[in-house]
Amino acid sequence: MEQGRLFKIVYHLLDKGRATAPELAEKFEVSVRTIYRDLDAISAAGIPIYTVQGKGGGIFILPEFVLEKSLLTPQEKEQILMALRGLAAVENSRTDELLTKLGGLFRVQGANWIEVDFSDWHKNTAGAELFDELKRAVFSCRRVSFSYFAGEGGGTVRTVEPVKLIFKSKDWYLYGFCLLRNDYRFFKLTRIKNLTLLPETFLRRKADVPELKPTIQQERLISVRLKFSPAAAFRVYDEFTDTVEKDAQGSLYVTVNMPERTLYSYILSYGDAVEILEPDELRRSVKEKLTRMAEKYKT
């Protein structure tokens, strides 16, 4: 227990920069006298601790001091390298040199466990460039300006203070404070055009960032019962995973809540491989749409 407390005191001082003996005593639930004994033990171990008396004083560790690599467990070393691999997966700049240095320092070969490819099958690299520019804006606290095309159609020019990049439901989003709406908003990256990093910076305080909403966009959901032909099985299993039922003829059945805004376009994307079973109102509505579509192809 005492050895664990010594390490925690060192980590605390490295993290906070300074502390007083009463603060440490309260944090670790021991007496001030015990803290001073701990500090003597830490100093005897070769860690350069010094104290400053008076206002603004306290207990410090020399800023040149770094923890020995032996203080990290093998699991912690592996986790650090895996985290860097995750960062490298969405980096345009190379992190191979840093990974090589830390791998040599830790004597651990980090597993290349993740890969993210922003390009589509047509090798469009615009998504990666947009992501990289927004990431730079987040890190440097720079405002960005872009044209944004909302789901209802039409574009607006937005100036945004970017907070973070979020991956949700197969898409990347920018979360930030929109000066046009005077509120925090989500922006789907595929709808952002003509991005410009502005020279103005902004001060991001923790208190300024509200708790993230549980979903990217609150939409009215409709419970739908669908029947798919066996020919669509590859796509059905991709998109509905373990919610699929199958009958003796190989037809597939799914009951799912779907957003009203994209419901028709999604169902029609299956062509004649899908049939709406429920609700009746939606079934009639799609039938009417198909009738109007057929009218367009009479000649």
UniProtKB/TrEMBL annotation:
It holds the Pfam family WCX. Keywords: DNA-binding, Transcription, Transcription regulation. Gene3D superfamilies: Winged helix-like DNA-binding domain superfamily/Winged helix DNA-binding domain (1.10.10.10). GO terms for molecular function: DNA binding; DNA-binding transcription factor activity. SUPFAM superfamilies: Winged helix' DNA-binding domain. Residues 2-60 form the HTH deoR-type domain. PANTHER family: PROTEIN PAFC, PTHR34580. This is Predicted DNA-binding transcriptional regulator YafY, contains an HTH and WYL domains. It comes from Gemmiger formicilis.
